[in-house]
Amino acid sequence: MDANNRSYLEIPTRVLGWLEEVEKIKIEAQSISSIENGCFNMKIRYRAGRNAFKIKEEMESLMDENSKIIWTDAPKPLGKVNSKIASSFPPSDGDAQNHFKSRKKTFKDTLGFLQRNHKIQIIAICGMGGVGKTMMMEQLKKDCRRYKNV
């Protein structure tokens, strides 16, 4: 999997979940104690054997599932976004200071043009798609309403 990450090759979607299950079973297997299993305590030996058998069956099913995972040499799509990384961003609260740090001057200049002492009533923000023009306009709209109420 590390080699695929370095080579920017696509990793099957099931691999990460499979690895998590393997780690869980590994921890369960290490928790089975062989020190306390004396030859005279049949109940403890039976329980340990039963747990070991269950873990063995789970390991076999995971090994079978591993053989069904198909690895390819297909490159990762350029526009693919890791959903875990994307979902870790804080939800948008409309705060211009958090979202427009790199464009603070542009935001302040645009807000200045919309003040009462200017005759400008309509503005246009132009740029590439996906850079936050709509979000900036929504924040400008909120700030203008706030200043007009003050």
Automatic annotation (TrEMBL):
Source taxon at top rank = Eukaryota
What SUPFAM superfamilies does the database record attribute to this sequence?
P-loop containing nucleoside triphosphate hydrolases
Q: Which GO terms describe its molecular function?
A: ADP binding
Chain ranges of the NB-ARC domain: 105-144
| Keywords for the protein's UniProt record, in alphabetical order | Plant defense
The protein here is known as: NB-ARC domain-containing protein
Organism, scientific name: Lactuca sativa
